[in-house]
Each structure stands twice: as structure tokens, then as C-alpha cells.
Write a structure and sequence with these properties.
Helix content: 40-55%
Number of domains: 2
Distance between the termini: 33 Å
Largest sheet: 3 strands, antiparallel
CATH architecture of the largest domain: Alpha-Beta Complex
Number of strands: 5
CATH topology of the largest domain: Aspartate Aminotransferase, domain 1
Structural class: mainly alpha
Radius of gyration: 20 Å
């Protein structure tokens, strides 16, 4: 899921037959967040060992989720759908970055992939958890404090833009009310 750069995978070197293993899921590309459906591609010896381990540690994915995964991979025009989704995410990304950069004390870089932004909030004078809690309780805006990703995340918040542009714009207005 990249916006401005061509995606490159090291699997192009050996087609996952010798030393490359790809572990991926359907969450982002197929909007199946929370469905916990994924896959692995790799050398047969490694995959066999992984299957032995996983069959003893997790239960099977339910039938309707498996069918949804098959449908995602076999739909008539999967790449066109993915292109439409990426175009929508690009618009949302641009809207939230522009909006957050208009909030006093926020500095937000434009992400090159995924559907999250991680603005720096140090100039607000507030700690990450303090501001995240305040935004939720007083303004109805949900985000994560950067510290949930480790101590180096202090001074940052994480916002998802996997929502409508109207919701993003409303959230930005609510955030601005804090300042």
C-alpha cells in the first residue's frame, strides 16, 4: 500500500522459493481489518514447519472469512478495485495531513503508505497520552498516543484516516477547538 513510490518486494529475486518469506493479510488492501485473515508464501520446508507450529497454537479461520478471502483474490477486476481504494486513501491522506498541519502545535508529514498519520505534537506543550485523552473526552476524536508504540513515540499521536473525508474534516474542526 504505497502512494507515490513503486512497491518493490525482495520476493522478486527468488519468487519465495529459496530464502524469502512473505507474511501478509487482507486487512488493508481488501478492507478486511479485524477479520484476522492472512497468508504466508515461502520455501516449502519453511512453510511445512510453520504449519506444524500454527496448527497447535491457533484455531482455524471461520468459513465465511475464508470465502471472503477467496472472493478478494478471485474477483473479476481486483487490481482496478485496489486502484480505486488507493485513490480514495490518497485523498483522505491529503485531507488529514493538510488539516492537522493547520492545528496549532501540530506538524504532520505525509505518509507514503498505510492509512495512518503520526503528527508531532510537541509544540502543543502536552504529553501524548494527555492530549489523546483530552481529544477523546472533550472533542470525541479518537487517536492513540505515540507512546503505545514505545518511549520514542512521546510527542506524537496516531490517527487513522480509514474513514470518510467528511469525518476527517469534522475531526480536524473538533481538534482545533482544543486550541
Amino acid at each position: 500500500m504505497t502512494y507515490d513510490e513503486k512497491f518493490y518486494s525482495c520476493s522478486e529475486l527468488d519468487e519465495c522459493k529459496e530464502r524469502t518469506v512473505i507474511i501478509d493479510g487482507f486487512s488493508k488492501a481488501y478492507s478486511m481489518t479485524g477479520w484476522r485473515l492472512g497468508y504466508v508464501i515461502g520455501p516449502e520446508k519453511i512453510i511445512d514447519r510453520m504449519c506444524l507450529l500454527i496448527s497447535m497454537t491457533v484455531s482455524c479461520v471461520n468459513a465465511f472469512t475464508q470465502k471472503a478471502g477467496v472472493a478478494a483474490l478471485t474477483m473479476k477486476e481486483p487490481q482496478e478495485e485496489l486502484k480505486r481504494n488507493m485513490k480514495a486513501f490518497r485523498k483522505r491522506r491529503d485531507a488529514i495531513v493538510e488539516g492537522l498541519n493547520g492545528v496549532p502545535g501540530f506538524t504532520c508529514l505525509k505518509p507514503q503508505g498505510a492509512f495512518y498519520v503520526f503528527p508531532n505534537i510537541e509544540r502543543t506543550g502536552k504529553k501524548s497520552k494527555e492530549l489523546a485523552d483530552e481529544l477523546l473526552e472533550k472533542n470525541g476524536v479518537a487517536c492513540l498516543p505515540g507512546t503505545v508504540f514505545g518511549n520514542a513515540g512521546e510527542g506524537y499521536l496516531r490517527f487513522s484516516y480509514a474513514t470518510s473525508i467528511d469525518t476527517i474534516n469534522k475531526a480536524i474542526e473538533n481538534i482545533k477547538e482544543t486550541f
